Amino acid sequence: xxxxxxxxxxxxxxxxxxxxxxxxxxxxxxxxxxxxxxxxxxxxxxxxxxxxxxxxxxxxxxxxxxxxxxxxxxxxxxxxxxxxxxxxxxxxxxxxxxxxxxxxxxxxxxxxxxxxxxxxxxxxxxxxxxxxxxxxxxxxxxxxxxxxxxxxxxxxxxxxxxxxxxxxxxxxxxxxxxxxxxxxxxxxxxxxxxxxxxxxxxxxxxxxxxxxxxxxxxxxxxxxxxxxxxxxxxxxxxxxxxxxxxxxxxxxxxxxxxxxxxxxxxxxxxxxxxxxxxxxxxxxxxxxxxxxxxxxxxxxxxxxxxxxxxxxxxxxxxxxxxxxxxxxxxxxxxxxxxxxxxxxxxxxxxxxxxxxxxxxxxxxxxxxxxxxxxxxxxxxxxxxxxxxxxxxxxxxxxxxxxxxxxxxxxxxxxxxxxxxxxxxxxxxxxxxxxxxxxx
Length: 439
Ligand code: SPQ
Fold this sequence. Notes:
By secondary structure, the chain is an alpha/beta fold. It has 12 helices and 25 strands. The chain has helices at about 25-35, 50-60, 100-110, 130-135, 175-185, 200-210, 240-250, 270-275, 320-330, 350-360, 390-400, 425-430; strands at about 5-10, 15-20, 40-45, 65-70, 75-80, 90-95, 115-120, 140-145, 150-155, 160, 165, 185, 190-195, 215, 220, 230-235, 255-265, 280-290, 295-300, 335-340, 365-370, 370-375, 385, 410, 435-439. The structure holds ligand SPQ. Ligand SPQ binds next to α1, α3 and α5. Ligand SPQ binds near residues 26, 319 and 320.
């Protein structure tokens, strides 16, 4: 059984200094997947050495790919080519990672072997029909539980998948990426249309590996005609991890933080747009492109935020940042309203309910709605809140400590290791008074 970790934050303080936060989780997953399918040796730097991305890495080792890891973000993948994966000897365990499970379901549907995908308690509750249903339309054979959850039992249908023209009912990069990966093994063209732009790392990285994928407005399409050629990938820092410090430095008076080498792909920068609408001081410096992805240093200083109505078009572009944006809203002057964010209910936890419960415990007037939240800015009190094993909830409440009037205790924080194992060290170096206890 994994250890229970409790975070304890002393209230008050400020953030000052420079930091390079952990590598991008979405890109780290994809670097392993596509590097494994490439011909030749792919070198990755800046790889996220955290549980989620390491679960993907282990899954590909289990399918016969030789992957070397030095532990400092450098990973070498000896690609086996598009048809070189081998049958795993046991179920592939993907821990807490929705991205691994959903993308792998598409990739494995068209292989010449069967496989089983399993995950931890949280992942075993997350909806998988959003991928298994369109995959079934392509001819895939994937069994879920009656509830449509993992374990997923995949019967490989090599040569038997057919491309579809799929209009996604929800804005999901995981569904889009899953179908594009399946489309690499399907007869004819696979087209995926999204209702709103979502992160496009799969499309960009496929292009980087030389695999043809065409993007036309909100539709991406792919065929089986292509091969991947090994390349070098420099994974930038994850804007979803940087977000904790963008909010922390905004809400804690006299803060001044420089976040280095952060990925600012326009499908991920909703958090900057939303914070700026709230009045945040965020400068984007030293913009450049690394391996097809825009990167910059982000300089943030404190200010009095104001409540806003969050524009719905920004929701998919900031989907993972809402836990910490709710903390920003709790510190803002006036009311903040979020709508159109029902997807938050099916993440590692129900991020609307869990954040509302925690904020209410801390004395904040936060009212959950079916698709968002209404928060009246004001004072944050102290108390004990539950993260429900959700890494982003745990880190968001740690940041709340900067403006709280009494200490905050956060339960069940071990899963911070799924996306940002250095969070505590970096946050304390910058000035957060955070300690942790294990039992
Ligand atoms: O991988 P997982 O567990 O689904 O991770 C989360 C997160 O907060 O780290 C979501 F809970 O990020 C997803 C994100 O919400 C990562 C992702 C991707 O890499 O493609 C896409 C988003 O999910 P979705 O369901 O909107 O496609």
